[in-house]
Amino acid sequence: MSRKINIALVGNPNSGKSSLFNALTGLNQKVGNFPGVTVDKKTGQASISDTCTANIIDLPGTYSLYPKRADEWVAYKVLLQQDEKIKPDMVVLVADASSLKRNLLFCSQIIDLKIPLVIAFTMMDLANKKGTHIDIPGLERELGVPIVAINPRKNKGIPQLKKAISLIADNLELLPAREFINTSMLANDAVSDVKNMFPGISNYAAIHYLINHESFTLTQAQQDAVEQIEADHKFNPTKTQAEEIVQRYSRIKHVMQQTIVENDPLQKALFSEKLDKILLHRTWGYIILLVVLFLIFQSVFFVAQYPMNAIEWSFGQLAGWLTATMPSGWFSDLFINGIVAGLSGIMLFVPQIMILFGFITLLEDTGYMARISFLTDKLMRKVGLNGKSVMPMISGFACAVPAIMSARNIENKKERLLTIMITPLMSCSARLPVYTILIALVIPSKLYFGFLSLQGLVMMGLYLLGTVLALLVAWVMKFFIKSKERSFFILELPVYRGPRWKNVAVTMVEKAKIFVLDAGKVIMVISLILWALSTYGPSQKMAAVTAKYDALEHQYPTQAKELQKQRSTALLQNSYAGTLGKAIEPAIKPLGYDWKIGIALITSFAAREVFVGTMATLYSVGDDDNNSSTLRQKMLAARRDDGTPVYTLAAGMSLLIFYVIAMQCMSTLAIVKRETRSWKWPIIQFTYMTGLAYLMSLLVYQVLK
Fold it and tell me: 138 vs 114, 118, 174, CA distance in Å?
């Protein structure tokens, strides 16, 4: 009879835990969130033996059972049986054999929790290169638990690991034979009292009840009872923790002397250390970093445009076919211009998300991501961030949506929130169509020194403006976002390794699914609302427009095509969106904008690049000549009621500044809501970015006009 068990997969960061998870589960994985925190929860199904299958929970990496970050608390609560939904039957602990002293600290703590346990040693090849020789049978005897050497990247040792898991699964009552240290000596009387309250827990678990019971799922009566035990026995958590760590390292030293032979510490530097002398050099390191980031940004931008164009073309063909096939009416209009257009807006982001996360995974797999964080930490810390903030910010040049998702790597809540709040200020690729057409409209095509384009310099200036503003806003916000959590930037530099292409592919697919299934729901709702606002309007106004153009088409049948364009423009002008554009015209007039630009500001909230399409519709650019030069000519010819041009240098620069700063992307707001689990921060983000955009645009227009 087949049985199913729950296995918690734990280990230090960079120990090879994710590689083992992928080797055991393959593509049979799910990604979600642990309840109450935005920390990835990866689960997967694995076949252990003919009679045993396992649900494997990949817990966040942690160095010890004394948590400081949100992800460490997740792992801690599961191991202390304080997570209501995840109750592991056993633990597989992944340990880096090349850094055994550090890894054995966490191993020894798990052993003392008295949970069924198997230890998997990774990076044995690296340990051998360092001259470290491990007597695994001897270490098994010292620790009292089974140990299996594995290399999940090459699928070595996996059958042996499954066999060890199966043997433990057959005897779940077979706990580690002995305590690693004598934990009862740390607080003997207090430990006994806690164990009487909670029968079945180990001595070491009782100590953690005394230290962290406020964070456990206990009744108020139980909380009060534990507090009383602390008071009665004058329990000192800090002193107990310090004594425990001293005991553990003393015991670890003894164990290593018995079972491990290490070479002279002054051994020849490894390849990783030699490479770090170049990549972490105080001059060359930054130059190489800029080149790497430039190549990533360019690759994401240029590689993504091909699948994005294909998706856009496919949805265009689908919309055209549906228009020709479905009977005209409100339902077909809703389906084609609302649902299909909304789906197009969602799917259009998928290539960028997949490619960007593919590159991020490559950087993480090779070990270079940690070096990027290390190099940039000094600058980031001055504005309230840390080195791990730089990758989401750089990623924001391609698309803020995957960039904000990648901010999950930042452990400190305040620094993560600051990164999320400023990342949309980085000029994403969706702004590029707006920049291109407006710069061509108002900036002369001049060359300096024979090769420096004035239009290109303005374009670069817009990107730099967004970056500088992001750092300034972070510096200001750090004084308003309060956090008791102390900021630590403790970073382990992993060894350089070749990428795991299967892991890259799995990550790309999973991140795309998260975006489509979660953020996509919000995007679709807002798309339908925008469709309704642009399609419907006050009945009397819309009826009057329809009657007027019906009469004109009857009177001038040869001009039906041109009149149809004018009808579309008039209907849009009198729709609720058009009415809103007219309504906000007094507010945007000081910025140099007219009501048509007002409509574009509203419709481009769906996505900034919608600005160009809205302008094309408003200026009646037909399908036959719908290209940027024709649109520019129409926009250049646009006049206000007093005969002055709409797109002057002042108005054009004001509009460019507005699009650099303003939050006009519902996809970004949707993902911010998902990542912060609150509407509070998206609302604050939308408010400060729009307010700042208005003030800066007003200043630019008033200075230049």
Answer: 20, 15, 20
Please answer whether residues 397 and 296 qualify as being in contact, where contact means their C-beta atoms are separated by less than 8 angstroms: no
Q: What is the mean pLDDT of the chain?
A: 80
- Distance between CA atoms of 522 and 557, rounded to whole angstroms? 44
Q: In the chain, what are the domains?
A: 3-170 (3.40.50.300), 183-261 (no CATH)
Given 3-state DSSP classes, what are the helix, strand and coil percentages for the chain, each rounded to the nearest 5? 65, 10, 25
pLDDT of residue 349: 66
CB 657 within 8 A of CB 703: no
Torsion of CA 456, 462, 463, 464, to 10 degrees: 100
Count other Cβ atoms within 10 Å, centred on residue 560.
Answer: 13
Residue written as token pair 């929790």? 113
**Structure tokens given for 156:** 């070595």
For residue range 17-32, list pLDDT tens digits in order.
888 888 888 766 665 5
Nearest C-alpha neighbor of 79 from the set 12, 8, 147 = 8
384 phi and psi, to 5 degrees? 95, 5
Identity at 582, one-letter amino acid code: K
Bridge partners (DSSP) of residue 93 are 10, 119
pTM check: above 0.90? no
What is the residue type of 399? C
Task: For residue 257, give the 3-state DSSP assignment.
Answer: helix
Q: Show Cβ contacts of residue 677 under 8 Å, excluding neighbours closer than 6 positions.
A: 38
**What pLDDT digit, counting tens, does each position of 274-324 carry?**
788 888 888 888 888 878 877 765 666 567 778 877 887 887 788 778 878
Distances (CA, A) of 398 to 301, 352, 355, 522, 654: 6, 7, 10, 21, 23
Residue 625, pLDDT score = 42
Number of H-type helices and E-type strands within the chain: 32, 11
Predicted confidence band at 666 (pLDDT cuts at 50, 70, 90)? confident
Mean pLDDT confidence for 643-669? 88
**Secondary structure string (H, E, C) spanning 64-114:** CCCCCCHHHHHHHHHHCCCCCCCCCCEEEEEEEHHHHHHHHHHHHHHHHCC
Split at pLDDT 50, 70, 90, the class of 523 is low
Residue keyed to tokens 């015209």: 585
> So what's the pLDDT on residue 626?
41
Cα gap 705→696, rounded to integer Å? 14
Contact call for residues 628 and 437 (beta carbons, < 8 A): yes
Confidence of residue 683 (pLDDT cuts 50, 70, 90): very high
Residue 321 CB contacts under 8 Å (≥ 6 apart), including other chains: none
590-618 pLDDT, tens digit each: 998 888 888 888 877 766 766 766 665 56
The pair of three-digit structure tokens given for residue 544, joined into one six-digit string: 């009057």
CA 450, distance to chain mean position in Å, is 42
Amino acid 465 reads L
Helix, strand, or coil (residue 156): strand
Name the nearest CA neighbour of 459 among 482, 436, 475: 436
- Strand 40-49, strand 52-58: pairing: antiparallel
Cα angle 257, 262, 265 (rounded to 5 degrees) comes to 120
Question: Maximum Cα–Cα distance for the chain, whole Å?
Answer: 102
- For 479, counting Cβ atoms within 10 Å of its Cβ (0-12 exposed, 13-18 middle, 19+ buried), the class is exposed
Q: Dihedral of the CA atoms 369, 374, 375, 381 (nearest 10)?
A: 120
Q: What are 370-399's pLDDT values in tens digits?
A: 787 777 777 788 888 877 787 788 778 767
Average confidence (pLDDT) over 492-502: 72
The β-bridge relationship of strands 260-261 and 133-134 is antiparallel
Within 519-629, strands assigned E span none
